[in-house]
Amino acid sequence: MPHTRRRLGIMGGTFDPIHHGHLVAASEVAKHFDLDEVVFVPTGEPYQKRNVTPAEHRYLMSVVATASNPRFWVSRVDIDRDGPTYTIDTLRDIKAREPDADLFFITGADAFTDIVGWKDVDQLWELAHFISVTRPGHKLEVSGYPEERVSLLEIPALAISSTDCRARVKAGYPVWYLVPDGVVQYISKHHLYREIPKQ
Ligand code: ATP
Ligand code: MG
């Protein structure tokens, strides 16, 4: 039966840089959960991570990576908000802009495990359905959460991480085929990841 309300997936991430693991996760969830669109939301100043690439670069790489898919788009809500990004704020801002959409928040297995550390966790369940996808090297565990608000999805395993992409660029290894072609070119044009700042 067709859904009466619009179904919007939300893929939050640092996207430093965006890679094919992110894109496959979004595409698989969109298919399985019959989503109309997926919005990629690059984080502002991530409180768990230091020395991330300036938000404008991460935003533009996300735009380049998603440009060819008519159902994918990128939101600035997190990068335009001051301070660290909390998922509750992302969901509230997207809900305010998209009041008629049902929201589906997509995370990889590693990010979902951190969920209990998120601000206002109880309110998260009211705002969105959460979908945790498999990720190589991370155990998918979702016990103890409201079952009707959380789903698990097995997706094709892509052992790609942004950390590894950054390290490869720094060491002079290619990132072709790990990230979209336009992102390879963007990284090269802007000399990103040549030096990894000390943590
Ligand atoms: P970093 O190494 O800098 O942490 P990352 O590759 O984990 O980068 P993030 O921007 O931290 O990328 O991740 C955004 C979201 O995408 C998270 O929910 C994460 O779990 C998920 N994700 C990232 N890579 C994959 C992958 N290869 N397969 C499935 N999910 C992924
Ligand atoms: Mg990560």
- Ligands bound here? adenosine-5'-triphosphate, magnesium ion
Arithmetic mean of pLDDT? 91
The radius of gyration is: 16 Å
Strand order of the largest sheet: 3-2-1-4-5-6
Biggest sheet character: 6 strands, parallel
Q: Could you say how many structural domains there are in total?
A: 1
The CATH architecture designation is: 3-Layer(aba) Sandwich
H/E series: EHEHEHHEHHEEHH
**Beta-strand fraction estimate:** 15-25%
Describe the protein in words.
- By secondary structure, the protein is an alpha/beta fold.
- It has a single domain (6-158), classed as HUPs (Rossmann fold, 3-Layer(aba) Sandwich), CATH 3.40.50.
- It has 8 helices and 6 strands.
- The protein has helices at 20-32, 55-66, 77-80, 87-97, 109-113, 121-127, 162-171, 181-189; strands spanning 6-13, 37-42, 72-74, 101-108, 129-133, 150-153.
- It has a 6-stranded parallel sheet with strand order 3-2-1-4-5-6, sandwiched between helices.
- Helix 2 (55-66) links the parallel strand 2 and strand 3 (72-74).
- Helix 2 (55-66) runs antiparallel to helix 8 (181-189) and helix 4 (87-97) runs parallel beside helix 6.
- The longest helix has 13 residues, at 20-32.
- The model has no long low-confidence stretch (mean pLDDT 91).
- Bound molecules: adenosine-5'-triphosphate and magnesium ion (MG).
- Its EC number is 2.7.7.18.
- Residues 10-168 form the Cytidyltransferase-like domain.
- It catalyses: nicotinate beta-D-ribonucleotide + ATP + H(+) = deamido-NAD(+) + diphosphate.
